[in-house]
Amino acid sequence: MSSSSTRRWFLWAAAVLAAVALASLVYTRNAQVTPEQSSSQGLQLAEALGGDTTGYTKALAPRAFDFPRDHAAHNDYKIEWWYFTGNLTGEGGRAYGYQFTIFRSALRPPGGTAADSDNSAGWAADQLYFAHLAVADIESRTFRSFEKFSRGAAGLAGSRIEGFKVWVEDWSAESVNRQPGEFFPLRVQASDEDLSLDLLLEEGKPIVLQGDRGFSRKGGGVGQASYYYSFTSIPTSGVIETDGAKHDVVGKSWMDREWSTSLLDDGQVGWDWFSLQLDSEQELMYFRLRDGDGNASWSDGTLVGPDGSSRHFETSDIVVSPTETWTSPRSGATYPIAWQLEIPDLDANLEITAAMPNQELDVSVTYWEGSVRVVGSLRGRQVGGRGYVELTGYGEGGAIR
Amino acid sequence: MLVAPLLWRASLRYLRQHRWLLSLSVVGVALGVAVVVAIDLANSSARTAFALSSETVTGKTTHQIIGGGGSLPDSVYVRLRTTAGMPTTAPAVDGFAATPAREGLTFQVLGVDPLAEQPFRSFVPSGESLDLGQFFSPTSTGLISVKTAEELALQLGDRLPLDIEGVAREVTIGGYLGGSETGQSDAALANLLVVDINTAKQLFDMPASLTRIDVIASEEEVQQLRAVLPDGVDIVAASTRSETLAQMTRAFELNLSALSLLALVVGMFLTYNTMNFSVVQRRPLIGRMRALGVTRREVFWLVLAEALFIGAVGTLLGLLLGVLLGRGLVQLVTRTINDLYYVLSVREMSVRPLTLFKGIALGVGATLVSAWMPARSATRSSPSTVLRRSAEETEVKAMAPRLALVGLVLGLGGALLLVAPSRSIIISYAALFLVLIGFALLVPVSVVGITGILRPLAGSVTGAVGRMGVAGISGSLSRTSVAIAALMIAVAATIGVGVMVSSFRTTVVVWLNNVLRADVYIQPPNLVFRSGEAELVPSLVEAIRDIDGVSASYGIRHVEVMTSVGLSQLSATETRETRGSMFAYTDGDPEAIRDAFRNDDNTVLVSEAYAWRHGLTRGDSLTIFTDRGDVTFLVGGVYYDYASDQGAILIRRLAYENYFDDRGYSGLALYVADDRPIDEVIGEVQETAGATQQILVRSNRELRRFSLDVFDRTFTITSVLRLLAVVVAFVGVLSALMSLQLEREREFRVLRAVGLTKRQQRRYVAVQTGTMGAIAGALAIPLGLLLAWVLIFVINRRSFGWTLQMDITPIILVQAALLSIAAALLAGFAALLLLNKRGEADGEQQ
User: Fold this and answer.
1) What integer best gives the mean pLDDT of chain A?
2) How buried is residue B349: exposed, middle or buried, by Cβ count under 10 Å (0-12/13-18/19+)?
3) Cis peptide upstream of residue A322 (ω within 30 degrees of 0)
4) How many domains does one find in chain A?
5) With contacts defined as CB-CB under 8 Å, which chain A residues touch B81?
6) Which residue has the higher pLDDT, A342 or A218?
7) What CA–CA distance (Å, rounded) separates A329 from A325?
């Protein structure tokens, strides 16, 4: 067993799942895919995905990253995402959590057959883009979530290297200065019905290459890995508008970038992923994949120091135990919403609690992704903090098998 | 009501004894009802099919964003989707495609973005879920209904060949539309081919534009959208287009319905005749019953009940027959709509309860109305006096002038309505029916007058038997005048419709001669003959123009545009041609009109039908929504044109290119140099087109012939209706003459007893029925011409705005007169034959 992020494989599968689900969704009256549908389609999907990586580039070994090129899409890999989460504070200390993610899923391998090549312009869609937006208003215990799909064609969705931008229709993350090589500050904008997010993300701690120099293994198999880097502490300010009321907010964001081609393990049913920002100016990334019995079959973690240096942890280095659960009235899924996290090496003992229980996304794929609070000790010092946790595979029978 | 059983038994016995007469009456009602029901079915089936297909495609769309020239740039959509806070939108590229897989099958191709579709439409692929990757695949994947796939024996993964404006294309079947969850019926989906928007863009060669953007928006949001849309792009209610299309056929349908009512009117004469006859025959019986204490009211209801019986049986048969007939007529109606208006496929008959109810109401109602008078007259049979036939006939004769007066009043009323300044087609037809009835009421007086003149004449030619025959006509005026009136109306309808169609045809021939001046005409195949919006492949246009021997060419472009008066056809014409004028104008100086049109970008011409439809005259202004935004044009002139009843706006090509981005051509006309045989050039054009596009290349003569073929085809249904009216009339005459001969039965026996030979009896019948036929024919000619006049100058004008030249072909009149006489003779002898058979049977019994 080796290291590295297997973090949102669920979402990876979800992406393709969405592709399949959508096809029927699109023409169905029901806007929602029922849990039964998603799981059965997920099943088909996982099988379909198993042998369907031909033609795609695989993540086989550490590579030299090339920025700003690598901030934009890598269409020769099957799946990719731009992941933003953060905890923000409004007037009077009102706390908000937000998640904004853009996913890219290739519909067919690059190049294609000769017959395809002259049709590649315009609206021809090789890439499916979709995005999730969720905001937790902790004080009022309100959680709103939305999704958006588009073809990566005709300018409807895509990514841009120079003057970086990634967008799905009117939802976007874009470099404000549009100067070559200047990634930050980023403006993140997304809105739907009664929710609107407009944030400015400014340069904070330097880039963190996850796993082995950004090469993040997913399992024992060849090519079962992704390229993965993060910005773990990004000073953030802006406006969150809910029900027509504008709230100025400030806080910290976390950004993850990951792209890959390979697949999930057959035995994995879901995963828990943590990104914690401590008031000691340290950040901790940790994930674990669960098997059918709920045991961690794979895990990985990184601690980022105040100076930006990072330390990588192996599977056995971190122990996480759920201490409390919550059952979603909407999906019926039971999620852990409090944990005990221990890192014996660091003499770390952290209590992680959901800022509010209901942070389950009401989108095509059911999962929990929410703001958390942290208290505890690290190397004998009292620490506190906020963070984000993602929980997948807790639904009826598990979302992915 | 003690006597009731007795009454009913008497009634039943009577009906059984006269079952031939009874059946004819039933047949008459049945035919009348059948024609009305069939037309209504055909119309409503066409309407339902249209509504279904537009609903399926419209879905929950409330508004549509459209461009000036029938398309709008992609960028408009992309900007709306990438701007926050915009209403829900979805792009669409649609059109029609024929398929070589089945003759006559036309798909409505709908190109959608499945990722934007969900709020708008739902066409669940039944069975396996569809792979979005495959749907998005560059190898054109399409979804069709399961039923259509079965009909075409297509499996998933099979290729469906398409023919789009003459260019061969294909899609791979990637899934099925339909399924119970969608709530979409098979009929709604039967002709639908759903493809990805990118596939549709390739199929219809629209690389950078969309047909429209569908929108779900409140009025407030529409205003918001309007504010951000660029010039040349507008937002309209989603129903705009389908309403425009539905209105196109309104006049056409209305005219068919009116013609179908004609058959019913003739059927009414028939019932009237039967009921009247039955009352007259039973007058002695009724008199005795009255003596036994049967009240007038009971007698009245008895007769009405009998009529109701005839009406009910006839209506029932009529409904069945109507549904059968409707199956045939719906094909004719659909074909005409496809020739003239829009692509429509009627997959199933929609037998609406309303149609059947209408048939029942008309059938039973008409029978009761026509039985009213006979029933009233039956109540006058007094118990004390047994009124003799002769007495009654004298009474009718005395009444004749009064009837004529009523007829004159009705006719004049109708005439006044006709000349009154109105545009209502319904009023026109109501007036026409008044005139018809008025004319029918004039028949008794005319019969008395004409037979008065003819009697001595007939006597000198055919002797006493002939004189008797003629005298018999006015002798049984109550009977004969009804038969003559029915025949007259049917024959007049034949004349009227015939003269109208031939006038129309002559007008079109003259017009074609004026308009078609080039040697060779080229166009892509159009699904709707009269619309002609299909586009020639651009490279082909240049190549054809360069062909050796083409001395001059001018191109035409037909597109649909939005104007201040609604969706309209705009034709952009190259005005290279200078040899005389192609067009004749309704008013104004032709030279001045032509100069303005050729030199002023803001002058357009409109066709007469267009001007009529939208109330435009020369000098009016007309705003056209162009790619440069709203532009106001001057109507420089109104030209005669018979190409389409929707009419068109004509614009100079240069002006069109100024205001629209489209550079396509829908047709080319070539002038061929004198030293080059036309056939050779045609061959070369075909060769140039090769496999690029299948195009129609016709010589002047061929196009002319083809145009007239289509013209004739569109009048097929009119001819069918005309024929049906004649059949009903024939049944009417047969029944009238039969009742007449039945009444004469005793008279004949007496005559036979005093030495009238069978031959003489035949002559008697021949003279009598022949004369009746001749009278009907003679009266039908003025009435028919009047009818033709009304159809040409009132109905056609009000329906379509056309000026037609009335062209009376003598042959039609001769044919009508002969038809009238032949029908009467035939009916007379058929009646005689039946009577003789009956007589023999009776003889044997005795």
Assistant:
1) 82
2) middle
3) no
4) 1
5) 150, 156, 169-170
6) A342
7) 13
Is A399 a member of any domain?
no
Tell me whether residue A114 is in a domain: yes
CA–chain centroid gap for A294, Å, is 21
Query: Would an 8 Å CB–CB cutoff place B121 in contact with chain A?
Result: yes
pLDDT reading at B611 higher than 70? yes
pLDDT of residue A357: 96
Residues B836-842: contacts with CB under 8 Å, at least 24 apart: B839/B745
Which domain range does residue A360 map to? Answer: 9-391
Instruction: Decide if B138 and A115 are in contact by the 8 Å CB cutoff.
Output: yes
Q: Quote the pLDDT of residue B126.
A: 43
Place of tokens 């019969």: B447
On whether the CB atoms of residues B2 and B219 are closer than 8 A, the answer is no
Query: Is residue A2 in a domain?
Result: no
Task: Give which of A20, A24, A26, A40 to mutate to test B binding, by max B Cβ within 10 Å.
Answer: A26
Question: Of A263, A259, A261, A262, which Cα lies nearest the Cα of A80?
Answer: A259
Quote the minimal CA–CA distance from B330 to chain A in Å.
Answer: 32
> What pLDDT, in 10s, does the model give residues B82-138?
998 899 999 999 888 999 988 878 898 999 998 888 888 876 554 445 677 778 877
Instruction: Report the length, in residues, of chain B.
Output: 846
- A198 φ/ψ angles, rounded to the nearest 5 degrees: -140, 100
Residues 6+ apart with CB under 8 A from A77: A56, A57, A58, A59, A106, A259, A260, A261
Encoded tokens for B562? 């939005």
CB contact under 8 A, A156 and B81: yes
Residue B251: both structure tokens together: 């006049």
ipTM: 0.86
d(CA A150, CA A129): 5
For the stretch B157-177, pLDDT in tens is 999 999 998 899 999 998 888
Q: A394 in helix, strand or coil?
A: coil
Two tokens at B39? Answer: 């037309």
In the DSSP assignment, the letter for residue A212 is B
Alpha-carbon distance values, B493 to B120, B504, B721 (Å): 50, 16, 10
For A48-69, how does the pLDDT look when each residue is reduced to its tens digit (9 = 90+)?
334 467 889 989 999 999 998 9
Judged by a CB distance cut-off of 8 A, whether residue B115 touches chain A is yes
- Nearest residue on chain A to B112, alpha-carbon basis: A26
pLDDT value at A22 more than 50: no
Residue A75's CATH number: 2.40.370.10
Interface contact A24-B130, CB threshold 8 A: yes
Two tokens, residue B216 = 């779900």
Tokens read off for B527: 């699904």
Q: Where is average pLDDT lowest: A37-41, A304-308, B266-270, B376-380? A: A37-41
Concatenate the DSSP letters of all residues of B378-415 into one string.
HHT--SS----HHHHHHHHHHHHHHHHHHHHHHHHHHH
Q: What number is the average pLDDT over the span B603-618? A: 92
Q: Which helix or strand (DSSP H or E) is residue A229 part of?
A: strand A225-242
Q: What is the mean pLDDT of chain B?
A: 84
pLDDT range class, residue B78, cuts 50, 70, 90: very high
pLDDT in tens, B276-314: 777 777 777 777 778 878 888 888 888 888 888 888 998
- A113 three-state secondary structure: coil
Indicate the angle between helix axes B716-743 and B477-515, nearest 10 degrees.
Answer: 160
Within a domain: residue A4?
no
